[in-house]
Amino acid sequence: MMRSMRVAAATAAVLTAGALGACKFELPGATPKAPTGQVAATVGGQEITVRDLRAEMTDTQSSDPKALKQAEQATLRNIVGRTVLAKAAIDQGIDRTPDFAIAKKRLVDGLLVQSLQNKIAAQSPPVTKEEADRYVVSHPDIFSQRKIFTLDNIRMPRPSDPAVIKALEPLKTLEQVDAQLTAEKIPHQRSTGNLDAVGVDPRMIEAFVKLPPGELFVIPAGNALMVAQIKDTKIVPFEGPQATDYAQKLLTKQRVQEAINRQFNAIITKAAPTVRFNKDYAAPAPAPAPAAVTSPPAVPRG
């Protein structure tokens, strides 16, 4: 949903940028009647504030004052153009259509959830240097004995039929996997690449170092699967201030995600008694919860 919002915003920016090139909007200060102070522009009496402008420039960074001013002016013109076009849509009654109401609710709900996530993240206690240092010491495979794995792998589209993965489970070599996929006429590519422990989920690294030599494993990658085998492992230590900074960022990400999951689950659980489903759309009964594990599982093979 957020990606759709970004695409929509980008599309509007492109369209308005082209249209605005032929327009002569007045910039603040151009006439005595132009807005001042915290109002960057007005459109038919509707104010566009400096705060509105800054909110759209959060990703804009430049040490060149001239370039920053140009970006500011371009962003303001895009906001003006979007405001004009939105007003035209309202005048045509588009905001009163059922499809718009559905889309608006979806976007607003998504923004509210994102804002709730941001609030939870802001309230999470910061990770101290001492915590980061302890993490560095307790995870040598990422730091003092940092592993860089050379993987021989076969990449293929994620199959919709579970039987395809099931047929690969007894295979012991990539040559056998290659032959099986070829026989099933499943497109695939074989290649070799490196995987650095720095930047990878620590649980995956823990699983990797526990694998028997030559063991095949499967890594999900979006809409693809990678069947891989570790061919070589190099040790390239990752230490010093950069390692501590990396550990702090990694722990912060983990802490924030855990806090979000915990609070979201609590909210959803509390609201569960108020939810009623049409019998034609009710979810199936949940399966029994699996037994708790004390350590991350090995990399799955399917």
Describe the structure in your own words.
The protein is an alpha+beta fold and 302 residues long. It has three domains: 91 residues, no CATH class; 53 residues; 89 residues, Chitinase A, domain 3. The strands form two sheets. A four-stranded antiparallel sheet has the order 4-3-6-5, covered by helices on one side. Strands 1-2 form a two-stranded antiparallel sheet. Helix 1 packs across helix 3 and helix 5 packs across helix 9. The longest helix is centred in the C-terminal third of the chain and has 31 residues. The radius of gyration is 27 Å and the shape is extended.
How many distinct helices? 9
Number of structural domains: 3
Cα-atom radius of gyration: 27 Å
Largest sheet: 4 strands, antiparallel
Residue fraction in strands: 15-25%
Order of helical and strand elements: HEEHHHHEHHEHEEH
Low-confidence stretches: 1-11, 292-302
Secondary structure: number of strands: 6
Widest sheet, order of strands: 4-3-6-5
Overall 3D shape? extended
Helix/strand/pairing category: alpha+beta
Average predicted local confidence, pLDDT: 86
Q: Report helical residue fraction.
A: 40-55%
Taking the alpha carbons of the first and last residues, their distance comes to 28 Å
